[in-house]
Amino acid sequence: MADNRIGRIVIVGGGTAGWMSAAMLARALGPAAKISLVESEAIGTVGVGEASIPQLRNFNAFLGLDEDAFLRATEGTIKLGIEFVDWLHPGHRYMHAFGPVGRPLGTTPFHHYWLDARRRGTAGDDFWAWSANALAARAGRFGRTPGEAGAEPLTWAFHFDAALYARHLRTYAQARGVQRIEGRIIGVDQDGESGFLRAVALEGERRVEGDLFIDCSGFRGLLIEETLKSGYEDWRKWLPMDSAWAAPSRDDAPPVPYTRAWARDAGWQWRIPLQHRTGNGHVFSSAWTDKDAAARTLMANLEGEALAEPRLLTFVTGRRRKSWNRNVVALGLASGFMEPLESTSIHLVQSGLARLLALFPDQGFDPLLADEFNRQTEQEYACIRDFLVLHYKATQREDTPFWASRKAMEIPHSLAERMALFAGSGRVFSRDEDLFKESSWVQVLLGQGVTPAAAHPMTAVAADAQVDGWLDDLARIAGRTAASLPTHAAFLAAAGGPRPAQ
Ligand code: FAD
Fold first, then answer.
1. What is the C-alpha to C-alpha distance for residues 324 and 369, in angstroms, rounded to an integer?
2. CA of 163 to the centre of ligand 1 (A)
3. Which of 19, 75, 262, 345 fits 276 for a cystine, CB–CB 3.0-4.6 Å?
4. Which residues bind 7-chloro-L-tryptophan per the record (predicted)?
């Protein structure tokens, strides 16, 4: 390695983002880097963030974490998708299930055959009858390997206690040499000319010097914003949610293997089942309801017994204009935030780390590296933003001022194009840095009532009877796959084993 390699990495913040960074960098860079993490127990962490997407499995696998041990350590459960209730109109529900729905026939995506068969009257309205994930979720079943010949395994993620996950990763990172420093950062030492950071100053006249600083300090962005003034792009005109009440509860029902998101009068409510409790939250816009009314909505709609008073969190939806600025890379809440409707925040930490490793400044801080990092990050955020906005824009609801405003709002051009293309011809494509692939877009577009005027013309190449037989076979395989699995509760009991001593 060249002499100017990055030797000292300082991570500021010990929330989920900080400890994910510590674990991944320690694993990827090994002893080549000296990694320190500064956190302040007095300041604490945001303390929410319980639902993930399947990519987290790759992160855990990269670290070499055993999945059952992870579930035990984090009181985790399985997540097969998200059920959206009352989003299109009251009384309506649909699922964004992970993984594919059906299988492509040749080069034409599955949903075109379904659209065509539905038009001919030979396929039902339930698109999710071809998703083993959705069927297993509805039936409360999960297993890693289907007991059905010819079936593909399900695609899964987790619900977990984020504080316990951070603790798990802390043990992992410290075992690999990461030094944890407890204390409050009160100042920053910067090079006068370049503005590069040299050290952070802690209470008690301590200094931690570094070559590369990872800012995981949460919403405030201690280094990236308070020090470097990198700027913030505010997306509240499209996503006006700015607050959430969160409260844990407990009930006796076995945990379902999916997240629930109910539309409410001025926002929505989540329900995330963990092994030891259920996470609940009401995300709302203070422009459309007041916080006391929002708290009452949450508490009136809890299932089971509340375990604590609700806690209020506030945020500004958007992204940092430069997540990489000089020798500071911001990850987690310090680099931006979008409401947890599709559980994307923790994933953005993971993808930011992968991007940092791909562009690692081992030969020094060439501005091209930061530019490329920022370009990719901007695209990734914008694609997720569009996907979230779709859930609000494509509604039939006008029953409250909030929903009427969402239906009428102007949306980003990039999303308007995608919706129009799909509405006209059923075509939708994932773009550069798009986290959500075609299957996700199709499910939410259909779920939100965007029905294509036509299917792809290539569906006509196969005879109708052949397509219908093939659709029947796929539905049968998906149904039998789901039915062949143990219940989620039985899976957890087998995977959970005895709990580790606290
Ligand atoms: P924080 O947890 O805020 O950590 C900041 C760290 O910086 C702390 O350790 C703090 O002590 C330290 N710090 C700050 N200032 C100083 C200082 N001066 N000196 C020393 N240390 C300092 N994400 C998902 O993926 N799924 C979800 O379901 C989900 N739900 C969410 C619901 C809500 C309402 C909110 C607000 C967020 C949700 N998120 C979710 C996002 C998720 O919580 C965060 O992405 C994740 O926890 C990462 O947070 P963080 O580590 O960036 O910040």
1. 9
2. 10
3. 75
4. 79
